[in-house]
Structures are given as structure tokens and as C-alpha cells.
Amino acid sequence: MEGIAQKVRAIIKEFNLNNYSFSKRIGVTSTTIDSIINGRPQSDGSRKKTKPGYDVLMSIINEFSINPDYLFGKDDQMVRSDVRKPETYSGMPQVVAVNATGNENVVYVPIKARAGYLNGYGDTGYIESLPSFNMPHLTNGTYRCFEVYGNSMVRTFFDGDLVFGKYVESLSDIKDGRVYVIVSRDDGIVLKRVINRIDERGKLILKSDNKSGNYPTYTIDAQDIMEVWYVTMFASRQMPEPVDIYDRLHELESQLVELREAMRN
Description:
Elements: H1 4-14, H2 19-26, H3 30-37, E1 40-41, E2 47-48, H4 54-64, H5 68-71, E3 106-109, H6 114-120, H7 124-129, E4 132-133, E5 143-147, E6 162-167, E7 179-184, E8 188-197, H8 198-201, E9 203-207, E10 218-221, E11 225-235, H9 244-264
Parallel strand pairs: 3-5
Antiparallel strand pairs: 1-2, 3-4, 5-6, 6-11, 7-8, 7-11, 8-9, 9-10
Helix pairs in contact: 2-3
């Protein structure tokens, strides 16, 4: 029979949390959780596990709607039957599109489809209703194309640009400073530069490249994230400015250097 430590560890894993984020949810320190699961070091080198008190157990039960009988080994059902099990981040997209040869297509999510995508990202019929196409060089993963909306990422991406994202299988794989498409319950579809604090705080920090002051940095909880797509490629209607002005500046700088050398001689 599993002890209380194994039960608590299973709950943490079930809700896609770590010791720190779990401790914050129930209002205790991460040290408390660590002592319950792993035990406190003893003078003889062993570790003695701490038994959670009544207040800690009640916090776990209330915060995660846990079946009390599960904690005490009387039932195998973790979450109470009258509570819908919360969705946690999935390591695979719920729905993908494939072509006639069985290879995955890139599903295109235009601006006008953004609102519907929040409700239909897990609906096969909805995903199939979106445009899709094959890009031979986008392989080894599932890709989705999103149309950029707004100016929060100006300097890097512009309104109407297309970004191609590869599905992120684990939130822990998110790399600091890279650009991702984040799909969440509260914020919808956003394109942001991300700082990963999932392991430490159970959150992502989302930053905009537009430094006008109108797009503040904010955080999002791991439990609110439905999909994450790592931007690997983009297509833009913004053509780069002619570079002849830089060529002229370089030429002028070269002439000045030559003039100084001539004057010295």
C-alpha cells in the first residue's frame, strides 16, 4: 500500500506541478513538501519523512478537489467523482491534420479564426475546417501557422506576418529569450518572448519586443496554458529598407580615414 508521501507525489505529478508550485497552491513552504515526500536528513545519514498535519491535508483536499479516501489508501480514485478533472498540459496536440500520404500538414490559423480556435483546438472537425498545407522542410514535429495580430512584437514581427510554430511537448523545454505562440484560457493566442520559470514558480514570463511602453511584461500560470508553439520560421509582408544609405556611410567613413592618413603624411 502506498504511503501518504507517495500519494502527495502522485497528486503533484497528476497536476503537472513541481514541489515549489504545489507548495504555493496550498500555502506552505517548499521545504515542508520536500520533508513530506523525501524526508528530513538525520544525523545518521538517513532521512525521516514528515507526516502532514490536518491543515496541510485539508489544503490539499480543498485546493485540488482530492478524494479524502484516496489520501488514506481507502480508494484508488484521486479526484472526487463530482468534480471534473482539470486539464493539464499535453505532450502532443489534441488534433493534427494529415494529407493523403499520411504526413502531417501545417494547419493555418488566420486572425479571423483566433476566437474559434480557443474552443476548437481539440475538435477534429474544427481543425479540419481550417486551411492546411504541406511544407516539406518542416518535419520532425507538428507545426502550426499563426497570423500575427497587433503590434506588441513590432521590431521583430508585424501585424499580418505569418509565424510557423513547432509544438512544444513539455513546458520545461521552453528556452529563455525565444519567441513562442502561447494559447491559454484567459489570454487567447499571444505571440511573446518567453522567460521560463515553470520549475521555480509554475509560471511563464511573457515579454513584448515593442518597447513603446504600451505592452507590459506579465506572467501566466502553467495550469492555464493549453498549447505552446516554438516559432522556428516566419513570413513577412514588410520589405527591408534599402541599404544604399549604409553603403554611402561606409564609403564616407572610408574616405575620411584615407583623408586623415593623407594629412599625416
